[in-house]
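NEDD8-activating enzyme E1 regulatory subunit, Psilocybe cyanescens. Tokens?
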Amino acid sequence: MSTVEASTTALITEAAPDNKTRRYDRQLRLWAASGQSALENARILVISGGATATSILKNLVLPGIGHFTILDPLTVTPEDAGNNFFLDGLKSVGKSRAEEGVRLLLEMNDGVDGKAETRSLEEVLDAPGGKEWLGEFTLVIAVNLEKGVSERLAGVLWEEESFPPLVVVRPAGFLAEFYIQYHEHTVIESHPETAQSLQIDRPFPALLDYAMSLDFENMDVTDHGHIPYVVILVRVLEEWKKSHGGLPPQTHAEKSQFKKNILAMRKKSDEENFEEAEAQAYRAWTKTVVPSETRALFDDAKVASPSPVEAPFYKLVRALKKFVGGTGQGALPLTSTLPDMKASTGAYIELQKLYKTRAEEEKEEFKACLREVCGGSIEGIGEDVIDAFVKNAHALKLLRGKRWAALDGDHEGLVQAIQTSSKQLSIHLALSALANFTAKSKGTRETLSVEAVTAEAKKLLPEGAELPDEFEDCVGEVVRSPTAELPNTAALLGGLVAQEVIKMITKQYVPINGYCVVDLVETWTGIL
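Tokens:
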């Protein structure tokens, strides 16, 4: 049977994708089945049923979040009906914002579960078991809460590392910000742009034998023009080392000569694979090392001090450290993933087999290290997790966050932000000062004004520090629309916040670590 016939038969006999796969096809390409499973098992609490909150939820319901609860004691007002697309217009006025939001959001995906909770957040926090109820959620999103309530919620969820992360969202007209509060967040599948090393500078035995066994001189011209550049580089490097004391090219002159040696092997002037090898020649003299960010994890306190209740991530890093110091000989486990290259199908498959076989061998050696650090058993760490960890060992991430609003009490950090991120800080100061003024003036006749909010902003800065020049424009906008959730701002925030929430839930890609500020007057976003 020919290759084409075999492929056709496989396509015919392969089972058709189920409804879920068809529905979520595009996002499965982003975060795969493991990410989708995490999303479908997540429980999200959103505090507010306003326009921003429902826009965020729309972008979580569509990709298939498992469950969401809207916590909101308010009823729908005509203003809500005018700016919230997830209400039934004036028909929703007078009804519960939470119940209306849940009802209409659930129409977008019948695979999602939703619930309305009409208590206030204060009632939840004051009630027996309130903290435990909050702890049942995977993540909590709070939108436009009053300062005192936000601080109380942030404090409760910061008490224990086991409590869920908190996303605080504050929109005001065309300005907004959001912040993710978490103790720490580990990422195995960060999806980096840089691929793991092919280890051309230190080829494994089977690859070296294969490269040296090919008869370049007497090879058919067509085959010669389709040798993968990896094989060419291994061959040229090995021959170079024989006449240079076992060393790769060191100087600029030697590197130039090395490239000339590659091109000199061509049988025809238009052999693209040799041109590709010349362009990738740096791989031959670039030493395979453990990336600095991954190596820094080896010295992390939690890696150095095992705990009986630690996350699998730390056990995996501990095993990786052992592997690198032992059988890895200073390198990470080999990856079986190869980049695209000019090669015949047969030559590419042969190279892929070599890498896959060696990668499987090194994965088994890594698992032996894992068993050793785990006391003999790796039960609880799935094979898919080990595969993902080994594949992404060059791009592991360990993020440590801070409590929400910590920046407002960090005078040194504020002064530094004035110098480095004045535009971003101006928006943050305007929103924080607005929240402070609103809390302070509650129950009084004090009127909101640019002067009053500016005075509150100055109180946030240490003595002698001046407000950024851009603050004047920002304070004007927050005073103009202090509590307004404009549809376009809500829509943008809905996408931005949901994107970061999905990163947190799936533990894929790298979430923001700081304030994300939004300026729709000048149409830009930034990180503070």
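The first strand starts at residue 43 and ends at 47.
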